[in-house]
C-alpha cells in the first residue's frame, strides 16, 4: 500500500490552511527525525512565499522526550512528563527547518470550549499570522489527559482550522490516504480518493487502530475531517513520507483522500451573522465604508466615528455609514473589543491601541473573517479549484 495507489486530483484552492503532522512522520528511537519533516517544511515555505498562511499542528513531543531520556514505558503520567520534556525540542526542531519565525502555541479542547479563551486564542493566532510567524500548535499535554490518552491532535487540528477560519485542513500521515479496510491487515483494502460525507461504514473501516508510532489512527482523522466539513472546511489526507506527494501538493495536486466540506455550513455562518440579534452598532466613516465594500477589508479603529449601545467582545454588531444615518446597516460582524474599549480607541490608529487600553487583541475592531456585507449576495465560501 503506498501513495501511488491514489490517482491525482485537484487540491481545493486555499489561502489559509492548517497542516497537521503526526508522530508517525517525526518519531525515531533517537527522538525527532528530520527526514520527512524537511519536505513538509519546504512545502510550508513555498506556500508562504506564494502569500498563503499556514498554521502547523505538530505531534512529536512525547517522541522527543523519549529520545532525550531514552525512556521506555507507556503510562499516561509518563507520557505527560515525556511531552513536557520534549515540547521545547519539538519547537526548536521546526525552527531549525523553517526560515519563518516559529511560535509555540499549546492548546486544549477545553480552551476552545471556553468563550473568552477561545476569543483570546483566535486573536493571538491571527496576530501571529499578521506578523508572518509560523504558529506550531500542540496539545497542552500536561493538562489534556483525555487527548493524550486518545492521541488526538487530529481533532485538535480540526478545531484549530475552524478557530482560524482556515479554508483547508491538511493531514500528513504515514500512509497514502484512506483505505476501505485496514491497509496492513485487509488484503482487499482499496484506496478511497474522495469522500462526500463520512459515513458510519467509513468510520468502521478506519477503526483498525494506529500505526506503530502514531496514536489516533485513521478514525480520529475521519472524525477531524467530519468536524472540519461541518465548519465548511475540506480535509486532504496524504502521505508525508513521499516527497513527490508533498511536492505535488505545493503545485495544487493531491495524491491522497479529499474529504469534502459541507458548503451549507459556511453559508449558514454568514446567514447567522446576518440575522443574529445585534448587541450594538458602530457608525463608521466614508473611508471605512469604501474599504469594506471594495476590498472586503477589516474594520480598523480609525474608521469608527461613534459607538451605539453596550456590548461584549464577541457580540454581533451592525456597521452603519456615519454620513447616511437613515440608510440600513451596510455590514454586520463580531466585535473584537467591547463597547467601552471601542469608545476609547475610536478614530485612533491601530498602533495606539496598546497605549490606550493597556493591551491589544488585534489591530481590527471587526476582523474581515467575522464580517458579512449586507448588500452583497450570500455567496458560500469558495473551496473548489
Ligand atoms: N482504513 C484505513 N486507511 C488507512 N489507514 C488506516 C486505516 N485503518 C487504520 N489505519 C492506520 O492508521 C495509521 C495512521 O494513523 P497514525 O498511526 O495515528 O498516524 P499519525 O501519527 O500520522 O497520526 C496508518 O498507518 C494505518 O496503519
Ligand atoms: N501531543 C502528543 C501527540 C498526540 C497525537 O495526536 O499524536 P499523533 O496521532 O501522532 O498525531 C505529542 O506531541 O507527542
Automatic annotation (TrEMBL):
Pathway note: Amino-acid biosynthesis; L-proline biosynthesis; L-glutamate 5-semialdehyde from L-glutamate: step 1/2
EC category name: transferase
Location of the protein in the cell: Cytoplasm
Catalytic activities: L-glutamate + ATP = L-glutamyl 5-phosphate + ADP
One GO location term (cellular component): cytosol
Pfam family, one: AA_kinase
Sequence positions that bind substrate: 59, 141, 153
Assigned EC number: 2.7.2.11
InterPro entries: AceGlu_kinase-like_sf, Asp/Glu/Uridylate_kinase, G5K_ProB, Glu/AcGlu_kinase, Glu_5kinase, Glu_5kinase/COase_Synthase, Glutamate_5-kinase_CS, PUA
HAMAP family on file: ProB
Purpose: Catalyzes the transfer of a phosphate group to glutamate to form L-glutamate 5-phosphate.
The protein's name: Glutamate 5-kinase
Classification of source organism: Bacteria, Pseudomonadati, Pseudomonadota, Gammaproteobacteria, Lysobacterales
Amino acid at each position: 500500500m503506498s501513495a501511488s495507489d491514489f490517482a491525482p486530483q485537484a487540491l481545493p484552492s486555499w489561502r489559509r490552511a492548517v497542516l497537521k503532522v503526526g508522530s508517525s512522520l517525526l518519531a525515531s528511537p533517537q527522538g525527532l527525525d528530520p527526514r520527512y519533516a524537511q519536505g513538509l517544511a519546504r512545502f510550508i515555505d513555498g506556500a508562504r512565499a506564494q502569500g498563503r498562511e499556514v498554521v502547523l499542528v505538530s505531534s512529536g513531543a512525547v517522541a522527543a522526550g523519549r529520545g532525550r531520556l531514552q525512556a521506555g514505558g507507556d503510562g499516561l503520567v509518563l507520557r505527560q512528563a515525556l511531552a513536557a520534556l520534549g515540547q521545547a525540542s519539538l519547537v526548536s526542531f521546526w525552527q531549525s527547518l523553517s526560515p519563518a519565525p516559529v511560535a509555540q502555541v499549546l492548546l486544549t479542547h477545553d480552551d476552545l470550549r471556553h468563550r473568552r479563551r477561545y476569543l483570546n486564542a483566535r486573536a493571538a493566532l491571527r496576530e501571529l499570522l499578521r506578523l508572518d510567524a509560523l504558529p506550531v500548535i500542540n496539545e497542552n499535554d500536561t493538562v489534556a489527559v483525555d487527548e493524550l490518552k486518545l492521541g488526538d491532535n487530529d481533532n485538535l487540528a480540526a478545531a484549530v482550522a475552524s478557530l482560524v477560519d482556515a479554508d483547508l485542513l491538511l493531514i500528513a500521515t504515514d500512509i497514502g490516504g484512506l483505505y476501505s479496510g485496514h491497509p496492513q491487515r485487509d488484503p482487499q483494502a482499496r484506496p478511497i480518493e474522495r469522500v462526500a460525507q463520512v459515513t458510519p461504514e467509513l468510520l468502521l473501516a478506519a477503526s483498525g487502530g494506529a500505526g506503530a508510532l502514531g496514536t489516533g489512527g485513521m478514525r480520529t482523522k475521519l472524525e477531524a475531517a467530519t468536524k472540519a466539513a461541518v465548519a465548511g472546511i475540506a480535509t486532504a489526507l496524504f502521505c508525508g513520507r513521499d516527497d513527490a506527494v508533498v511536492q505535488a501538493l505545493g503545485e495544487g495536486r493531491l495524491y491522497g483522500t479529499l474529504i469534502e466540506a459541507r458548503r451549507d455550513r459556511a453559508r449558514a455562518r454568514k446567514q447567522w451573522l446576518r440575522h443574529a440579534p445585534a448587541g450594538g452598532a458602530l457608525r463608521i466613516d466614508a473611508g471605512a465604508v469604501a474599504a469594506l465594500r471594495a476590498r472586503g477589508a477589516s474594520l480598523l479603529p480609525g474608521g469608527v466615528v461613534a459607538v451605539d449601545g453596550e456590548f461584549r467582545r464577541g457580540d454581533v454588531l451592525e456597521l452603519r455609514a456615519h454620513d447616511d444615518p437613515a440608510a440600513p446597516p451596510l455590514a454586520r460582524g463580531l466585535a473584537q473589543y467591547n463597547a467601552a474599549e471601542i469608545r476609547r480607541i475610536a478614530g485612533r490608529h491601530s498602533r495606539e491601541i496598546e497605549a490606550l487600553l493597556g493591551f491589544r487583541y488585534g489591530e481590527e475592531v471587526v476582523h474581515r473573517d467575522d464580517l458579512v456585507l449586507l448588500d452583497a449576495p450570500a455567496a458560500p465560501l469558495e473551496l473548489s479549484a
